[in-house]
Amino acid sequence: MPETPSETWTTRKLLTWTTGHLERHGVDHARLAAEMLLGHVLGVERLRLYLDPDRPASSAERDRFRALIERATGHEPVDYLVGRAPFYGLELAVDRRVLIPRPSTEALVDAVIEHARSQGRPVSVLDVGTGSGAVALALAKSLADASVTATDVEAEALAVARGNAERLGLADRVRFVRGDLLGAVAGERFDVIASNPPYIPTGDLAGLDANVRDHEPHGALDGGVDGLACVNALIDGAADHLLPGGLLALEYNGGAQTSAVTERLGRVSGWGESRVLRDHEGLERVVCCVREAQGA
């Protein structure tokens, strides 16, 4: 923002100028980004910005805000800049060690909650590739009597997830284990296995938006040649880690991946009929399948 000694930069004026500036630089959801950044600098919730719109920003606050705007126009994710992201009614700490939780993943949480509540008893849930802990913590918060285990191959991601569990008062509700996919829980069985694994085809990574491609961890995005390396591994191995009648719920990229995922579930022994669910934008996002009881 321009610095003119005689000009007073109020909250209202900062939001208006910043929204336009971010829009001109191609930042998505520019108004929301401006609110998040200014609220972060001023130490207030977004709503508070509108309750005191004529508050003048100090020189130090303007300097901090200007520095964040510059990083945002360079397509650094706003959630990383403010250090937090919303998910399923929770506020999670996030940084470049973990993928930023997406609203689309809430469909995965919804599917697990629906199944768990239909059982009429406490259930055990495994969240594979927990990252920030978003899915595991949302489930622990929503299912007060559930036993939740969360795994990740990255120690740094688990550190973020554990920190979020502590801040949310859920540290005693979630067991965190380091390991790759199902290798972290060898010999264990659960009522539900849920996962938001990497599902972007390797060849598509270069075409992702700059804020994703250049800043979020590629290990949480890269799903191999067809995007389904981890999804297929979970389909092939999850039945051995589910109790009879247990649910496998997987997030994937929809579109062309739908037929590949449902066909594989139909070929692999141990699975019943699959069901595809849509996310908040109406896109195919989650596949659910129940482990058949026979042979348990």
From TrEMBL:
InterPro entries: DNA_methylase_N6_adenine_CS, HemK-like, N5-glutamine_MTase, PrmC_N, RF_methyltr_PrmC, SAM-dependent_MTases_sf, Small_mtfrase_dom. It comes from the Bacteria. Residues 121-199 form the Methyltransferase small domain. GO terms for molecular function: nucleic acid binding; peptide chain release factor N(5)-glutamine methyltransferase activity. GO terms for biological process: methylation. S-adenosyl-L-methionine binds at residues 129-133, 152, 196. Its EC number is 2.1.1.297. The keyword Transferase applies. The keyword DNA-binding does not apply. Keywords: Methyltransferase, S-adenosyl-L-methionine, Transferase. It catalyses: L-glutaminyl-[peptide chain release factor] + S-adenosyl-L-methionine = N(5)-methyl-L-glutaminyl-[peptide chain release factor] + S-adenosyl-L-homocysteine + H(+). Residues 14-83 form the Release factor glutamine methyltransferase N-terminal domain. Substrate binds at residues 196-199. Methylates the class 1 translation termination release factors RF1/PrfA and RF2/PrfB on the glutamine residue of the universally conserved GGQ motif. Belongs to the protein N5-glutamine methyltransferase family. PrmC subfamily. This is Release factor glutamine methyltransferase. It comes from Mucisphaera calidilacus. The gene is prmC.
